[in-house]
Design goal:
disordered N terminus; PP2C; Phosphatase 2c, domain 1; 2 domains; 5-stranded antiparallel beta sheet; PPM-type-like_dom_sf; 268 residues; 11 strands; single chain; 32% helix; PPM-type_phosphatase-like_dom; alpha+beta; protein serine/threonine phosphatase activity; PPM-type phosphatase domain-containing protein
């Protein structure tokens, strides 16, 4: 290789680093999906601690699942209240993970299947309740990570997922609230809840070099702290298990009365 050729290649490399940054190589198309670093940790607080020793045993369930479909790596994460249970997960198992899908159709199919899973479970729960009974409040949140590049997020009720991008908290919102180019997320300083009752919101986004981590959490977290506040509390904690425990402990300190469950996903 001549000196001139080497100089040109070195210059091109520097220009690439200038535009994409030192972390951008994580999303190289040539990098095998299973090598993309995703770490996670979760913590669920015993209801006896929250409710002073009551006999209530309606715990949240946490799901963490990794699937390899040809050249596509899928991570499925979720926090579901006792009413939802494993209903959404079972539907995804039989109607999504068991299918052989092309990567180009993966995100659209994920959104469609998640939506059908949630709506189906919600319908069954409502049908099981008599009209004179108090309205059942259904809450859960789940995330699908596709090849470490794409996110599909579903929120129902008071549980939600918050994304930290370059230190800023973003929350999934419905199409009627679109106000930015990234229409599925909006910076929320107020902590306003957009999901009322058992409303379902499903959205998608890309994981880029500024995407740091996701917080999946129950109502017991969000009723005592705002989105940005939660991000600020755990952003400096590299271990996702430690970060999840930190958020749940903080919710207890603040005397939260709701379900306290948290799952942290880091993109290192």
């Amino acid at each position: 290789m001549g000196i001139r050729e080497f100089h040109i290649k070195l210059k091109a490399f520097r220009v690439k680093r200038f535009f994409f940054g030192r972390r951008r190589n994580r999303w190289s198309a040539n990098k095998p999906s299973w090598l993309i670093p995703i770490t996670h940790g979760h913590h669920v607080v015993d209801h006896h601690v929250i409710k002073g020793g009551s006999g209530d045993s309606d715990f949240d369930s946490v799901v963490i699942q990794r699937e390899q479909m040809d050249h596509t790596e899928l991570w499925y994460f979720g926090i579901f209240d006792a009413a939802v249970g494993d209903g959404v997960t079972k539907y995804m198992q039989s109607h999504f993970f068991g299918k052989k899908l092309k990567e180009c159709h993966m995100r659209r199919k994920t959104k469609e299947t998640l939506k059908r899973a949630y709506l189906g479970v919600r319908t069954k729960i409502k049908e099981a309740h008599k009209p004179e009974e108090e309205t059942c409040r259904i809450s859960s949140t789940s995330v699908m990570v596709i090849n470490g590049e794409k996110l599909v997020i579903a929120n129902m009720g008071d549980y939600r997922t918050v994304l930290c991008r370059n230190g800023v908290a973003y929350q999934i919102i419905g199409r009627h609230n679109q106000s930015t180019k990234r229409h599925w997320y909006r910076k929320l300083f107020s902590g306003t809840k957009y999901s009322k009752g058992s409303e379902l919101v499903v959205g998608s986004d890309r994981i880029d070099s500024d995407t740091e981590f996701l917080i999946l959490a129950s109502n017991g977290i969000w009723e005592v702290m705002k989105n940005q506040e939660a991000v600020n509390l755990v952003r400096h904690i590299e271990d996702p298990q430690e970060a999840a425990e930190c958020l749940t402990k903080e919710a207890l300190i603040r005397m939260s009365k709701g379900n306290i469950s948290c799952l942290i996903i880091r993109f290192d």
